[in-house]
Design brief:
Elements: H1 8-15, H2 25-29, H3 48-51, H4 53-65, E1 70-72, H5 80-84, H6 92-110, E2 114-119, H7 133-150, E3 154-157, H8 163-174, E4 187-189, E5 194-196, E6 204-207, H9 216-223, H10 227-240, E7 244-247, H11 256-270, E8 275-278, H12 282-289, E9 297-301, H13 312-323, E10 326-330, E11 332-333, E12 336-337, H14 341-359, E13 366-369, H15 385-399, E14 404-406, H16 418-435, E15 439-442, H17 455-465, H18 475-482, H19 495-500, H20 504-514, H21 520-527, H22 533-537
Parallel strand pairs: 1-2, 2-3, 6-7, 6-15, 7-8, 8-9, 9-10, 10-13, 13-14
Antiparallel strand pairs: 4-5, 11-12
Helix pairs in contact: 4-6, 6-7, 7-8, 9-10, 10-11, 11-12, 12-13, 14-15, 15-16, 16-17, 17-18, 20-21
């Protein structure tokens, strides 16, 4: 039996409806207050905690006498943005603590009543770049410390309109002297939507093209500072069926922190999809986490340089813990990238046990990448990499059913022509999913169903995946023969052709819904002469 004591406030919530008080600001405004009462800071209600505590107590007392179970502290505006307007941002802690003390003292007069620490949003939105995330977070730390020192039973982050601001406030609350563990659902989120790790009809598709290491188009756009082009690549992946975007800006000689801020800051509002931040550099990951209001996945941690206090593993995990992110663990240890199924599972087990026991990560928030090398080079040492990876996934999921298994699918086919790669990637993905794969880092539009692959191509690709060589037959050579001179083709028209074929108003609807800027202005100009209110409200 657990000896953990349930706090009285949580016990009351579990047992009954807890009635809280009403507005604080309007009650203070109805009092007969002068500019002197505000110490010259007209409209700064929080200053009344020290200049007119009697008025604040009376507001609390009125609500308690009316039967309220809980009262909120007079600290809604005790934050960086609001107090800075009066030049008293150094009083965040003082005003928060005093506000909590007044509410606590008054509530205790009535017995069995509760105090809720009010944390308001302020007027600065970090998602729009009004204030750096870290600056806002550190100010919330001061506010929450003051509230907890003053004796609140709970902290309420209220009236928020920016998820990144809410994230800063919650992170600040976690850094207070009595942190509470959040209980996020297994999944990730953007400003616009939450995406569970487990998809009903498919694996979770992680778009791989917003990656400077793997996408030439994205890399060249980033290097040239054409950030809108980078955003369009992200949107293309959304339309192609990705559930999540892998964002990697690492490139030799570049300022990765600046690149990450530029791109993560734009994708925070321009893309509806959550982001998997992909970097080996903790400072680059921090920059991304501080730009994104949703819940990210951090890719990746591994034991390449061990797990000591100064290792990349620990430095990245401190960020993961602070921001409540999901984490991608790679099957790499001090000996290198794991090659056999046994080695992969050994490293994966070490990761899962370490992350859960020492870092408080829920098993369902751990994403293990069992990794694979290309099996397309003809080198003997990589011939079994695909089958070893499949077996590692199967054993990992047997041991830890709640862990998410992921894989960069296209790694398996480097070196082959695009048509052969499409078939091999599709077949390999299918086999991995059968073994238990939950998520795949892949170009979703280039994966085809097994039933649409010609029989011989599918059979040869399977032979290559499972290393079924025999005298006179090498599946790698046969696959290359089957695709010699063959190029990829698509039965659907290009995006531009597809849009051009639509009626004008239907095309405008698609551009607006998809957030596509290219061509929008021309279509609007074409539509204006014949537009009417009825057309715009119901264009079809």
């Amino acid at each position: 039996m657990s000896d953990r004591v349930t706090p009285p406030f949580l016990g009351a919530l579990a047992d009954r409806v807890v009635v809280a008080d009403g507005a604080m600001g309007t009650m203070l405004q109805s009092a007969d207050l002068t500019l002197d009462d505000f110490a010259g800071h007209e409209g700064c209600n929080e200053i009344l905690n020290v200049t007119r505590p009697d008025v604040v107590r009376q507001v609390h007392r009125g609500y308690l006498e009316a039967g309220a179970d809980a009262v909120e502290t007079n600290t809604f505006g005790a934050n960086l943005a609001n107090l800075a307007e009066y030049g008293i941002e150094d009083k965040i802690f003082e005003l928060s603590r005093r506000g909590a003390e007044l509410a606590r003292e008054t509530a205790d007069e009535f017995g069995g009543r509760f105090v809720l620490g009010s944390v308001g949003p302020g007027t600065k939105l970090p998602t729009l770049g009004h204030v750096p995330f870290a600056t806002l977070r550190d100010a919330y730390v001061e506010q929450v410390k003051g509230l907890l020192d003053g004796g609140v039973d709970a902290v309420i982050v209220e009236t928020s309109q920016d998820l990144l601001q809410t994230k800063a406030a919650i992170t600040g609350a976690k850094r207070g002297p009595t942190p509470r563990r959040p209980r996020p659902e297994p999944g990730v989120s953007s400003l616009y939507q939450a995406v569970p790790f487990r998809q009903d009809a498919s694996v979770l598709m992680v778009g791989e093209r917003t990656n400077a290491d793997g996408s030439k188009a994205f890399r060249e756009a980033m290097l040239a500072g054409r950030y809108q082009d980078c955003v369009e690549i992200a949107r293309d992946q959304t339309r192609d069926g990705a559930h999540l975007l892998d964002l990697n800006v690492d490139y030799v000689g570049r300022d990765g922190v600046a690149d990450m801020r530029a791109l993560a800051g734009r994708l925070a509002t321009a893309s509806t999809l959550p982001i998997m931040l992909d970097s080996t550099e903790p400072d680059v990951l921090r920059a991304g986490l501080e730009c994104l209001g949703g819940r990210c996945a951090v890719n990746s941690v591994n034991y390449e340089d061990g797990d000591g206090p100064d290792s990349r593993f620990q430095r990245i995990m401190r960020l993961v813990r602070e921001h409540g992110a999901a984490v991608v663990g790679l099957c790499i240890d001090e000996e290198g990238q794991a090659r056999t199924a046994e080695w992969k599972v050994r490293v994966a087990t070490r990761l899962v046990e370490d992350l859960t026991a020492n870092w408080g990560v829920r098993t369902s928030d751990i994403i293990i990448d069992t990794l694979t090398f290309p099996i397309s080079t003809g080198q003997e040492e990589v011939r079994r990499d695909a089958v070893e990876t499949i077996e590692a996934i199967r054993e990992l999921k047997r041991r830890y059913p709640d862990v998410q298994a992921t894989l960069g699918i296209s790694n398996v086919s480097f070196g082959l022509n695009p048509a052969a790669r499409q078939v091999l990637n599709s077949v390999f993905l299918h086999e991995c999913v059968q073994a238990g794969l939950d998520t795949a880092i892949v170009h979703a539009s280039e994966i085809v169903p097994m039933a649409r692959i010609p029989d011989e191509q599918r059979a040869v690709a399977l032979d290559l995946v499972y290393d079924r060589r025999r005298d006179g037959y090498d599946p790698l050579q046969r696959l290359m023969e089957l695709f010699e001179g063959v190029s990829t083709s698509s039965s659907r028209a290009s995006r531009a052709e597809e849009l051009a074929a639509l009626p004008l108003f239907a095309r405008l609807e698609r551009r607006i819904v998809d957030g596509e800027r290219n061509g929008l202005e021309a279509d609007l100009d074409a539509a204006l002469p014949s537009a009417c209110p009825a057309c715009w409200s119901n264009p079809w």
